């Protein structure tokens, strides 16, 4: 071990521990983000959870078929049902007052005409009406329409089955009425390696996402120390002492790598023990050693990319303020497009293509491959390679910028 | 002996060179002063000696060995104490010394003893546990100097080491620096304060616009072949005489003139009599460094 490198590591570690604001940004910020975002996005990651949008049904038909549709819709709809007085006028008023967002109106003769296509008996088909609060998002409107259509299709199929059975003289099983209880048709399972598991919770998405974001925030303490060194002539003094610039960079890599790994351990603990205290699921780490090693490999390469990026920013910036702005805004942009702040699957296809350019997205993909899909080392290799190439390119750029600055001086 | 022979240096994009054919002979175990105004080329020469800049013309040798070779054989042979507080404000005095000692490759008892020596030399005992950012300007200068002493350098390069300190700290620093040659250290000291150079340097070079204007011991430089005359008149000094004798106005009808030789004093007095000027008093004096500098450059050190 080179005593010079050891001295540089020790100095960097002491300097870092005295940078209270930097440490606050590195440890407190991601903890808060994980807690807040896990709570905020909990429902978005839980299939079948009720959406906080209410609807009521005005059943003007009041037949067994219309009642079956209402019951079925009630079972499958992810929306909140409000029991109204089955009066169209009062339902409209509720809508206008913002007390509910959707009103489904089942017309008279709905049950009788369920299996009669419009025009076949000389009468036009009377459609179901959906009254909508204009402020409701079009996506939610569409989701509700689809659920009504699905329930309608199922009720129609049941009715057809019963009628066909009667037609062919088939026995009808006891309890096979339109109002029977229906099981869940779809059971969701996330695919992990060779096994299936339940769908990941928001904590499993958010912990790695905000961990990556926090790791990249080493740009603040890295650049703050680096700029002090440059402005006060300390780098020049080190050069006069025969310390090459790449050794100065190496002196910063290990301490900040360790800081990143401490961040990783802390954020995992937050996910496992603190998040459940706020009513969310606990973070689950893979239990096998190879998967844990894969997890650490992703964490390590994210760290190398983050520290190298920070060193590049510190080499470009002339003042701490510049570094904070360039590094901070750069991180926020990388996080925004990289699926940290907004999950990638919510983004439109064009944005998802841009997301693929963000190093944070590469890291998140790596973590998801290990944590959610229980992927092998070969599966995470593309993410690791992207991150390592980014780290090496950033370091080389930092060294080149330093050489260019020296050449400009001389 | 450090020999600087015909060294020139021009910064990229600069219109004029910062060093032009500089040649100096710096004897060992002494304090050598580089005197010149801001921008004279002192820091450039120090940077060249510290290995921060590479010259294209000229040769620098230490005891006959090229500088780069000396540096590669013994990286601790040279130490630079820059103008800036080149240390870590968030580290304590002791931590800074430990760090820079470690960077020089010192370790164990050697690092401990050299740190202690540097602390004692710079009288930093009372503040070893204090963070550098909490020190006064004078104590920071002392820490800057103490770091330079780690590794027991053969050649210590001090670039304006007293800038911005109070008079008491300045005296302490000057006394400390003056004591360094006793341990065999050669000190190169740059300043634009002539009183500092006069106080501690055995040999001096006057530098301006990248050129060495004069080099020698302090007495050599002050001993001028052109005597200095201070003269008080009853009338204004006529312009023609003032120009011929490079006169400067130093008081009410009092002037300082440079005579080409003592023999020309009678000529001057005759000229004054012819111009109708009565002499109140006159005295022959010795130049100080400021005057010597003005004689070479026609401008003040403070310009």
From TrEMBL, chain A:
<dbReference type="Pfam" id="PF12698">
    <property type="entry name" value="ABC2_membrane_3"/>
</dbReference>
<feature type="transmembrane region" description="Helical">
    <location>
        <begin position="295"/>
        <end position="316"/>
    </location>
</feature>
<feature type="transmembrane region" description="Helical">
    <location>
        <begin position="249"/>
        <end position="275"/>
    </location>
</feature>
<feature type="domain" description="ABC-2 type transporter transmembrane">
    <location>
        <begin position="23"/>
        <end position="400"/>
    </location>
</feature>
<feature type="transmembrane region" description="Helical">
    <location>
        <begin position="323"/>
        <end position="342"/>
    </location>
</feature>
<dbReference type="GO" id="GO:0005886">
    <property type="term" value="C:plasma membrane"/>
</dbReference>
<keyword id="KW-1133">Transmembrane helix</keyword>
<feature type="transmembrane region" description="Helical">
    <location>
        <begin position="21"/>
        <end position="41"/>
    </location>
</feature>
<keyword id="KW-0472">Membrane</keyword>
<keyword id="KW-1003">Cell membrane</keyword>
<dbReference type="GO" id="GO:0140359">
    <property type="term" value="F:ABC-type transporter activity"/>
</dbReference>
<feature type="transmembrane region" description="Helical">
    <location>
        <begin position="380"/>
        <end position="401"/>
    </location>
</feature>
<protein>
    <submittedName>
        <fullName>ABC transporter permease</fullName>
    </submittedName>
</protein>
<dbReference type="InterPro" id="IPR051449">
    <property type="entry name" value="ABC-2_transporter_component"/>
</dbReference>
<keyword id="KW-0812">Transmembrane</keyword>
<feature type="transmembrane region" description="Helical">
    <location>
        <begin position="207"/>
        <end position="228"/>
    </location>
</feature>
<dbReference type="InterPro" id="IPR013525">
    <property type="entry name" value="ABC2_TM"/>
</dbReference>
TrEMBL record, chain B:
<dbReference type="InterPro" id="IPR003439">
    <property type="entry name" value="ABC_transporter-like_ATP-bd"/>
</dbReference>
<dbReference type="InterPro" id="IPR003593">
    <property type="entry name" value="AAA+_ATPase"/>
</dbReference>
<dbReference type="Pfam" id="PF00005">
    <property type="entry name" value="ABC_tran"/>
</dbReference>
<feature type="domain" description="ABC transporter">
    <location>
        <begin position="2"/>
        <end position="234"/>
    </location>
</feature>
<keyword id="KW-0472">Membrane</keyword>
<dbReference type="GO" id="GO:0005524">
    <property type="term" value="F:ATP binding"/>
</dbReference>
<dbReference type="InterPro" id="IPR027417">
    <property type="entry name" value="P-loop_NTPase"/>
</dbReference>
<dbReference type="GO" id="GO:0016887">
    <property type="term" value="F:ATP hydrolysis activity"/>
</dbReference>
<protein>
    <submittedName>
        <fullName>ABC transporter ATP-binding protein</fullName>
    </submittedName>
</protein>
<keyword id="KW-0067">ATP-binding</keyword>
<keyword id="KW-1003">Cell membrane</keyword>
<keyword id="KW-0547">Nucleotide-binding</keyword>
């Amino acid at each position: 071990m080179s005593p010079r490198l050891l001295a540089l590591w020790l100095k960097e570690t002491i300097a870092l521990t005295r940078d209270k604001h930097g440490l606050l940004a590195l440890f407190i910020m991601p903890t808060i983000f994980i807690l807040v975002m896990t709570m905020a996005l909990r429902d978005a990651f839980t299939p079948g959870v009720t959406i906080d949008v209410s609807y009521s049904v005005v059943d003007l038909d009041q037949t067994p078929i219309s009642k079956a549709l209402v019951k079925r819709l009630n079972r499958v709809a992810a929306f909140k049902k409000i029991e109204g007085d089955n009066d169209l006028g009062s339902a409209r008023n509720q809508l206008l007052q913002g007390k509910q967002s959707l009103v489904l109106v089942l017309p008279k003769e709905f049950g009788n005409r369920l299996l009669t296509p419009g025009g076949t008996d000389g009468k036009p088909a009377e459609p179901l009406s959906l009254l909508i609060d204009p402020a409701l998002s079009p996506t939610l409107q569409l989701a509700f329409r689809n659920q009504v259509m699905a329930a309608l299709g199922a009720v129609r199929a049941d009715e057809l089955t019963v009628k066909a059975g009667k037609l062919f003289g088939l026995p009808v099983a006891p309890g096979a009425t339109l109002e029977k209880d229906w099981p869940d048709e779809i059971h969701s399972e996330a695919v992990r390696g060779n096994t299936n598991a339940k769908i990941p919770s928001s904590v499993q998405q958010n912990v790695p996402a905000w961990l990556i974001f926090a790791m990249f925030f080493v740009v603040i303490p890295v650049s703050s120390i680096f700029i002090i060194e440059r402005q006060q002539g300390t780098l020049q003094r080190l050069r006069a002492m025969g310390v090459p610039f790449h050794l100065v960079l190496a002196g910063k890599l290990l301490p900040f790598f360790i800081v990143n790994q401490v961040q990783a351990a802390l954020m995992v603990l937050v996910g496992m023990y603190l998040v459940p205290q706020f009513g969310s699921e606990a973070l689950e780490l893979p239990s096998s050693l190879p998967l844990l090693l894969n997890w650490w490999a992703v964490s390590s390469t994210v760290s190398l990319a983050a520290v190298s990026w920070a060193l590049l920013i510190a080499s470009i910036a002339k003042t701490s303020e510049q570094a904070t702005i360039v590094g901070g805004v750069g991180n926020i942009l990388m996080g925004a497009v990289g699926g940290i702040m907004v999950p990638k699957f919510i983004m439109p296809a064009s944005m998802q293509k841009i997301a693929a350019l963000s190093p944070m997205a590469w890291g998140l993909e790596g973590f998801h491959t290990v944590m959610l899909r229980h992927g092998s080392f070969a599966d995470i290799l593309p993410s690791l390679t992207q991150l390592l190439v980014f780290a090496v390119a950033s370091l080389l750029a930092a060294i080149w910028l330093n050489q260019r600055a020296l050449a400009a001086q001389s | 002996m450090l020999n600087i022979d015909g060294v020139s240096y021009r910064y990229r994009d600069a219109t004029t060179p910062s060093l032009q054919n500089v040649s100096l002979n710096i004897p060992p175990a002494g304090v050598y002063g580089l005197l010149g105004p801001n921008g004279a080329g002192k820091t450039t020469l120090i940077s060249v000696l510290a290995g921060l800049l590479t010259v294209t013309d000229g040769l620098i040798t230490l005891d006959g060995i090229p500088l780069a070779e000396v540096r590669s054989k013994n990286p601790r042979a040279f130490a630079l104490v820059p103008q800036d507080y080149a240390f870590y404000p968030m580290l304590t005095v002791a931590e800074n010394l430990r760090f820079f000692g470690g960077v020089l490759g010192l370790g164990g008892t050697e690092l401990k003893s050299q740190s202690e020596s540097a602390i004692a030399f710079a009288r930093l005992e009372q503040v070893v546990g204090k963070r550098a950012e909490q020190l006064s300007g004078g104590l920071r200068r002392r820490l800057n100097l103490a770091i330079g002493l780690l590794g027991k350098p053969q050649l210590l390069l001090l670039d304006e080491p007293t800038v911005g300190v109070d008079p008491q700290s300045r005296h302490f620093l000057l006394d400390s620096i003056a004591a360094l040659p006793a341990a065999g250290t050669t000190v190169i000291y740059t300043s634009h304060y002539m009183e500092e150079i006069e106080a501690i340097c055995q040999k001096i070079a006057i530098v301006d616009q990248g050129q060495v204007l004069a080099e020698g011991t302090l007495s050599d430089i002050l001993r001028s072949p052109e005597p200095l005359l201070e003269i008080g008149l009853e009338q204004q000094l006529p312009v023609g005489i003032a120009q011929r004798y490079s006169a400067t106005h130093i008081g009410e009808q009092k002037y300082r003139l440079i005579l080409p030789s003592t023999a020309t004093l009678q000529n001057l007095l005759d000229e004054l009599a012819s111009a109708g000027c009565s002499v109140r008093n006159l005295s022959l004096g010795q130049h100080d460094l400021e005057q010597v500098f003005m004689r070479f450059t026609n401008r003040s050190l403070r310009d």
